[in-house]
Write a structure and sequence with these properties.
single chain, mainly alpha, 4 helices
Length: about 55
């Protein structure tokens, strides 16, 4: 459920913009995006697991 909520509420383009604007500072990003820090942390974990594994 948390994964679905994060994917629904966070627009990838908005995330990238906030990441650049606030240098990854999660509290400021969450305020800008109007989501909780916990939801943003969930979204980051989702992105980590989506990265392809390179040998």
């Amino acid at each position: 459920m948390r994964r679905e909520t994060a994917m629904f509420l966070i627009d990838p383009a908005d995330y990238v913009q906030a990441e650049r604007e606030y240098d990854g500072e999660i509290y400021q990003m969450s305020c800008e995006m109007d989501v909780t820090v916990f939801l943003l942390e969930d979204y980051r974990r989702i992105l980590e697991y989506r990265q392809p594994i390179h040998d």
